[in-house]
# Entry
Amino acid sequence: MKVLIETLGCKVNYADSSQISSALAENGYILTDRADDADIIIINSCSVTHRAERECRQLVRRFHSQNPSSKIIITGCSVLSESFRKRIQEIPFVELIPTNELPLKFKISNKDPSTFYYNRSRPFIKIQEGCDRFCSYCIVPFLRGHPKSIKKSDIISRINQTLKKGFKEIVIVGTHIMLYEDPETKSDIFSLLNDIENIDQDFRIRLSSMEPYGLSKQNIQLLSNFKKLCAHFHIPLQSGSDRVLKEMNREYTTSDFKNIVLEIKSRIPEATIGTDVITGFPTETVEDFDKTVKFIQSLPVDYLHVFRFSPREGTSAFHIKSIPSQIEIKNRAEILIKISFMKRREMLRKYIGSNMDTVIISNSGIISGLTHNYIKVIFQNCKPQKGWIYNAHLMKLNHDNTVLGELL
Ligand code: SF4
# Structure
């Protein structure tokens, strides 16, 4: 039986897909990347925005037209969204199955700790999922539920298994990794990172997106002491207006955020810091947006992920009706995307001419690697091993912000 898995959304979804695909492969299913070849197509969906849900529906139509005889299973967050279910349920060839019920459906076990790196250059290890902060725009707490952490002993065992396969970079993922709490010892993320640091092997770890809560001076100092930790932090800001942050139920101010960024940059000068920003949150005025622009320009962050506000039924922001017009939201997003491009360019320029270790993320088609501080480097005329780390010379910054390098 041939199965195609398509993933939308966040790194937690990618970690889940990786685990499902590995479990399927170990249980005799054949994984394919061609819809016309698949008996079953699994779409691991995302519900964070309308756009993500629309993309899922478009995928269903596309896959069905490419292969009308294959069965399509939708799993992931959208399956738990009432409005999505209503829209998709009447399609006869589509089945909706929550992620945790897939092993039962396919009669497979996904408990084997060796099963979570399929087809990845950098395995994603999930340490927790769920969140109970209820930011006013966010549907995630309703879909992923309260935070649930994976036992520290299981995480360490998974990392050890992964290292035995020869991988050199591991990405630690979760909905809100700062909420990690070992169910057995009640120890926190820093204790987990300390235990990972003490694994006596040559590898590095990267943290996925991290909420600013808990990033005190003392905790940033702890982070700066971990030698295996990549100097790359993605910390969502969402708005540069304190009034909007309050409306979003984000429990920090722009000044708190600035202190976090400055503290990281002073303790880890090579650190690349990225952030998320939402444009068009209800009640966001021109003045609020101007504050966001000015704040971001003054902040030593290196790139932005820009999201347009998407009202999600069930969240408290869904009921606030004064949303800027779609054209205004689009214009604001474009301004931020340009700022992000320039900031990234400024950061990249500093490293042209230097040698840095890069983990190979693709070794066919466009060959590329990633530095510890999140610079993607393109290589030509070489055949490095995917997932291994090579020293590289960063030669040239192209107009589109890609960096050309050569392996040393
Ligand atoms: S911290 Fe806020 S934005 Fe992040 S998952 Fe939790 S509710 Fe959503």
User: Anything to note?
Assistant: The two ends are 43 Å apart (CA to CA). The pocket of iron/sulfur cluster is lined by residues 131, 133-135, 138, 140-141, 175-176, 211 (CB under 6 Å). The first helix runs from residue 11 to 26. Residues 241 and 288 are 5 Å apart (CA to CA).
